[in-house]
Every structure is written in structure tokens, then in C-alpha cells.
Amino acid sequence: MSEKTADEAIELRTKGVHQAILFAGAVVAGLLLGWIAPLVINWALGIGGLPFEKPMELLQRVINSWGAWVLIVVGGVAGAVFGLVMLGGLVGLRVTARDLTIVVGSDKTRFARSQVAAALFDEGHLVLRDPQDVDLIRKKLDVSQQDVLAALRRYDWPIED
To answer: Which residues contact 120 (CB under 8 A, 6 or more apart)?
Structure first.
């Protein structure tokens, strides 16, 4: 492995295969909910007196006129949208000798090495503290704690055990 220079960054993000599984799981869950929805609607309308009866009757009319597949498609689309939202919320990290950047979707929060007196993990959250022992950030990351600690050690960041 080559020696890291001050300008080289270690990028820690959720693996692509894990992102694909997360997205596919959300789509499948949406499809399943769309598939089960007609059964639940029929059952609920059979009981009567439940809240949201009018919207359920509307959905029942959609099922009767267009078919149950409409709810399956809507469920799949909703699952895909939910999956994309979840992927956009994954928290990654970029570490160099000069700075550390927390990456959430397109949002980035950068901390200069001079701002950080200690880095540690507390209950699974990365905590960065300033010289006055005040938390700069406390963030749950979606990457391995061991990988984060290895990256910080690689650039001699102050790690508190």
C-alpha cells in the first residue's frame, strides 16, 4: 500500500452493494404493501365504522375500475422514492491530514484539523471535540467504526479511547 500524502483523502461511504440492497428492499416492501392493500381494504370495509372509510372506499373504486395492479405499481413507485430518500440520508466521511468532512447526501460539514482536539466514538456516534472539550459534532455514521478509526490513525488525528 502506498504512503498517503497530506492531499490524499480516505473516502468512507456505504458500499454500493449495501446501497443496492437497501434500495431494492424499499421497492420490494412498497410492492408488497401495494399487493396486500386490496386485501386490507376489503377487510376494513367489511368491518365498517373505521376511520378513513371514505378514502378506503375511493381506493376500492379504483381497484374495481382499474384493477389491483394499480396499487402494486403505486406501492413500487412509493418504495423507490422512499429508497432514494434513504440513500440520500446515508452518512459518509472524508479524511485527510488537514481536515475531516462529514458527507450526508450533497451536504458536507468540514472540520479543520486545528479545530479538533479529540475524536472518539460514544454509543456508536462519532464525536469531535474542540480544545475546550466542547462537542463540535456528534453524528451516527453509516460506515464501519473500525474503518473510521483506521483512517483517523492513518493521519495521526487525536483519538480518545
So the answer is: 126, 127, 129, 159, 160, 161
